[in-house]
TrEMBL record:
Annotated Pfam families: DNA_binding_1
InterPro entries in the record: ATL_DNA_repair, MethylDNA_cys_MeTrfase_DNA-bd, MethylDNA_cys_MeTrfase_DNAb, WH-like_DNA-bd_sf
CDD domains for this protein: ATase
The UniProt record lists the keyword Transcription: no
Domain of life: Bacteria
Name listed for the protein in its UniProt record: Methylated-DNA-[protein]-cysteine S-methyltransferase DNA binding domain-containing protein
Ranges where the Methylated-DNA-[protein]-cysteine S-methyltransferase DNA binding domain occurs: 12-96
Key word DNA damage present: yes
Record key words, sorted: DNA damage
Organism: Thalassotalea eurytherma
Length: 106
DNA sequence: TTTTTGACTAGAC
DNA sequence: AGTCTAGCCAAAA
């Protein structure tokens, strides 16, 4: 069983909550989520928290991880990976246009 | 325990 | 538009 301290758990939960607040059809960057979660400068932790947000772990609810992209508006996965394809598909379901791995700005 | 990795980023070329 | 660097720091190796 993985050990994690109380402070980390709270940070993760604040990140998950913040991601859950992104409206459908919108996107936010890892850095923006970190800032909004009260963790400035810790964008990497957002990626880590999302990676560790799989069902069953910490009883977290479904999190719209696909609405989080990097600061350049690009998807942070290799183009050929299944998870990349899934992120694009989920964004397109929400009418978000993705071109060349980059979310189209408006 | 130490080192490396990584869903990151701002700034400098 | 790319490439590099330094800063970030929890997780995995």
């Amino acid at each position: 069983m993985i050990q994690i301290n109380r402070v980390m758990k709270e940070s993760y939960q604040r990140i998950w909550q913040t991601v859950q607040a992104i409206p459908a059809g919108n996107v936010a960057s890892y850095g923006q989520i970190a800032d909004l979660a009260g963790l400035p400068g810790r964008a990497r932790l957002v990626g880590t928290a999302l990676k560790n947000s799989d069902e069953g772990r910490f009883q977290n609810r479904a999190i719209p991880w696909h609405r989080v992209v990097n600061s350049q508006g690009k998807i942070s996965f290799p183009r050929q990976s299944p998870i990349y394809q899934q992120q694009v598909a989920r964004l397109q379901e929400e009418q978000v246009i993705v071109l060349n791995g980059k979310v189209k700005l408006r």
